[in-house]
Amino acid sequence: MDIVFNVHLHDSTLADLSICPPKLEMQSADEVWFQSTITNNFNNKFSLRCQASENPETFEWYKDGRKLEVDGERILWQKPSQSGNILFVDPQPHDEGYYQCFISNIFGTAVSSKVHVQRGGKRHFEWYKDGRKLEVDGERILWQKPSQSGNILFVDPQPHDEGYYQCFISNIFGTAVSSKVHVQRGGKRQKVNHVCLVLEHFKERPIRRMIVEEGRSLSVECNVPHGIPSPSVFWLYRDTVQTSIIETIRRPHIAVDPQGILSYYPHFVLERYAIFHIIHKRSKYINTGRNGQNCRDYR
């Protein structure tokens, strides 16, 4: 006996039936930036987008080639049944990396472009020549990789291109400055290529309070981030009472060596004060109590 099944599908059913692999409709930009602090990151949360059509069934994220665990606590699905968007509620430094979204159904898989997630904020590059901002016109002077680095290329060097050049790289945390590059004209015309490498971030650490016995020397180390060329180091002073006051340290008894170590020499102050006292027959000092210390700055 032969059994025949007759199946009738309405046009509307055929219209709703999809026999295609997922089609990617929306994804994040190539670069996503986030902030991360030691205490509270609630206001630093960020998301990665991944949306598709053609009946997507599963969404998966991979970080640096390994499947990402969306734990539902620190990393959440924003709309589990509608999209593959994920939200980082508590971003951490180790969240940096390359992310990719995979969307699948029984007919196939769609893959998003890689998203480079970085901590710190989008970088902004500027070049200065002899203290004035350099115009990178896109014709004679070009950005080599505008979204990735501050490298510039001089396609048609001219005599007036001689001078001292310096690259400034800034983000939401501050500005890093390269060493000066002295560009000089040689005997043969050739393309000039300047490389401005981004400095690495300072390592995060809690505020450190140092109590020093009066009359003792003091040295404070600076863990200088790696950079090429080697970064120059300078220290800033912030008043603990009037925190809006920030100034460079210009005192003869305070020095910074090439490694960035700040040293305080009280004996130099006392010698200078003694000479000053003999000449002027009186002393002038200012009490600059800081961090609970009784410090005196003789001028």
Automatic annotation (TrEMBL):
InterPro entries: Ig-like_dom, Ig-like_dom_sf, Ig-like_fold. One of its GO terms (cellular component) is axon. One of its GO terms (molecular function) is cell-cell adhesion mediator activity. Residues 22-118, 125-184 form the Ig-like domain. The keyword Repeat applies. Keywords: Immunoglobulin domain, Repeat. GO terms for biological process: axon guidance; dendrite self-avoidance; homophilic cell adhesion via plasma membrane adhesion molecules. Pfam families: Ig_3. The keyword Repeat applies. Gene3D superfamilies: Immunoglobulins (2.60.40.10). PANTHER family: BASIGIN RELATED, FASCICLIN-2. This is Ig-like domain-containing protein. The lineage of its organism: Eukaryota, Metazoa, Ecdysozoa, Nematoda, Chromadorea.
